[in-house]
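Minimal example, chain plus protoporphyrin IX containing FE.
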Amino acid sequence: MDRKFVLSGLIYAMIGMSLGIYMAASKDHGELVTHAHIMLAGFVVSFIYGLCHKLWLHNDTSLLATVQFYIHQIGVAVMLSGLFLLYGHFVSLEVLDPILALSSMTVFVGMILMTVLFVKSAKNSESDF
Ligand code: HEM
């Protein structure tokens, strides 16, 4: 599980930096918010989840860990695609608003589930918390 999260994070970093380079080269910083979220929600959060699996969850492959992985990946992919379409003025906010709201909630649920997995992992290890 750790490698899957880290690989997905690195892929988001490459996509985010490509968008950043495009913004810098074109002097059109319209996708600033999208770039920032690709780098932070896509790259940094995914990488941190990979570190959690490596350091504390011991690559837990339980149903809950698998569900958490896919909830994060689907939530982030939909949210970042929605932001790209919104800040690129490809699709109106009226259309994207419910999609961005639902995908943001999904990413948030992914964070809650990782917290549950982390707390549960304490029970499996001798550490008190
Ligand atoms: C090739 C590397 C990168 C390039 C070319 C790049 C380019 C840019 C550009 C052009 C902006 C818009 C600046 C503005 O309009 O104020 C920006 C903003 C931002 N970048 Fe990057 N970036 C790169 C890497 C990163 C990395 C590694 C991260 C974080 C892990 C990151 C996070 C952000 C954030 C959070 C903002 C928003 C800052 C704000 O709200 O003012 N970027 N970047």
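The chain has a mean pLDDT of 95. The two ends are 22 Å apart (CA to CA).
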